[in-house]
Amino acid sequence: MPSEAFPAPLANRVRRVATDRPWVWITLGWRDMMANRAISLTLGAALTVFGWVLALLLFEIGSTWAILPMTAGFFILAPLLAAPLYETSRRMELGLPTTLADAVQGFRRPGTQIAMMGVVLLLVHLFWVRVAGLLFALFFGTVGIPSLDRLPLVMLQSDALVPFLVVGTGFGFLLAAGTFAIAAVSLPMLVDQEVSFLEAVTISIQAVLENWQAMALWAGLIVLFTGLALVPFFLGLVLVLPLVGHATWHAYRDMVVR
Fold it and tell me: Any signal peptide, and if so, which residues (predicted)?
């Protein structure tokens, strides 16, 4: 694993890529996933089960309104949870055999910096859930929250639905765009190199800004694939999570100079 800090100035660390390059990342991600099916699908299944458990807990405590913002918040935490997938692709690139135990080591290199990045993403996620709750209360009130099966109908019949969607979507888009910029390549970079999370975030933001067209396509593909995967009650995440995780490694390798 490369261990040098920054062999080149920050300004020289980012490569320009073609706008359609995300399709190549998806292709390479699929190759990595198929070459490591047991590891990739196990990790995807574990995160899918976690989604089921979380949704069940929210349903049991009567916080059905929180299921949607918590699901949306998944996009914020997903780059961190994919660290074992980055490690799997890293080891595959080096020609090293990989076990599930090897893949999990992705969280530990360098562990402190990844933990700090995780804290940042978790705080962003909690902030989003809190704001979503406040917006729901502001537009729909806090008394008599309907059951999950009635919630969509109640919202559709409310005059507050359109302003709620406009404000919520607008705020969510800004928060998601900022989170995407700081996490797009910072997590695989932390798995691959001994750098601080601030340096990795700086490079990630620079990569997004200098390749904004390709990254806009990449963000759209992530949202599309993940959104479709969530429809059958998270089942599609078993495939989509490892695919996007492995592809993100190749996005990092394409855009960042070691």
Answer: none
